[in-house]
Amino acid sequence: MRIDRFPDFDPGKFLPGTRIEIRREIESATIRSALFDFDGTISLIRTGWQQVMVEMMVEILIQYPGEGETLEQLTSNVRKYVDRLTGKQTIYQMVRLAEKIRQRGGVPADPLEYKEMYNEYLSHHIRCRLEGLRKRRITPDELMMPHVRTLLEEIRKHGIVLYLASGTDLVYVQEEAQLLGVAKYFNGGIYGALDRVEDFSKAAVIQHIFRERRIQGRELVSFGDGFVEILNTKEVDGTAVGVASDEVGKQAVDEWKRNRLIQAGADLIIPGYSERQPLLNYLFRINCA
């Protein structure tokens, strides 16, 4: 059970007959570009990555005892900053780990070493999923959010240019997008974390979209289940769709995600894409105004 959590938010209003929650009415604009997060928004290959990261960090930090801190308290604190940085490059969480080690009187390794360690842990966790996809024992749809492929196809039909941006390393995002058969939809490009932190951020991808497409904030819509991409979108006055996906059951709203996405400024909250048609009608009715 999660101890740390964002404040609970009361339900907003919903599109009639749907579970699409409207937190903020969208003003008239012509949407020309769409930015998607990857893990948890499209792909379920890395489901469980947060727990893998938390367990690794706790395993390291427990070697540097805090003052009167229980294992439960340590785990809760680690989960808090892992979750808060979700959507940013993995290296930022490893930088925070190094800071915590230093605060506890230890001498940390380079954050890149912790990132490599985490990638090894996670590779073990998802190995069977990737092998299943490569050998076609698992179909791509089994490891994606339901109906997301149809959603991407429908958005492309509207003439919208699609971009994919992830805090996961670019080489992994490219491979996994190919394995899932969704890389072809992102005619605007696929972006992911690079070795040099300063070479990638979701905020920078958004600025690239604005320059390349010569668009303004309201002409961009973003879909994501993380705090960062929603916040970055709202900072430039874009439309933010928070995907409060239950990555295990794939149907219900994850309340913790929902609260976090609302706090980040999401305009809409959806549990997934089963109600994609009313969602698209709501978003793209704007184009006919």
Keywords:
289 residues, 8 strands, 8-stranded mixed sheet, Rossmann fold, alpha/beta
Question: What does this 3D model show about the protein?
Answer:
With 289 residues, this protein is α/β, with parallel strands linked by helices. The protein has two domains: 177 residues, HAD superfamily/HAD-like (Rossmann fold), CATH 3.40.50.1000; 86 residues, no CATH class. Helices cover 43% and strands 12% of the residues. It contains ten helices and eight strands. An eight-stranded mixed beta sheet has the order 1-2-8-7-6-3-4-5, with helices on both faces. Helix 3 packs antiparallel against helix 4. The chain is globular, with a radius of gyration of 19 Å.
What is the CA-CA span between the terminal residues? 46 Å
- Outline type: globular
What order do the SSEs take from the amino end to the carboxyl end, as H and E? Answer: EEEHHHHHEHEHEHEHEH
CATH architecture of the largest domain: 3-Layer(aba) Sandwich
Stretches where pLDDT is under 50 for at least 5 consecutive residues are 1-5
In the sheet with the most strands, the strands line up as 1-2-8-7-6-3-4-5
The fourth-level CATH homologous superfamily of the largest domain is HAD superfamily/HAD-like
Number of strands: 8
What profile does the largest beta sheet have?
A: 8 strands, mixed
**What's the tally of helices?**
10
- Please tell me the overall pLDDT: 90
CATH class of the largest domain: Alpha Beta
What is the radius of gyration computed over CA atoms, rounded to a whole number of angstroms? 19 Å
> How many distinct domains?
2
Helix content: 40-55%
Structural class: alpha/beta
Q: Report the sheet-strand fraction.
A: 5-15%
CATH fold name of the largest domain: Rossmann fold
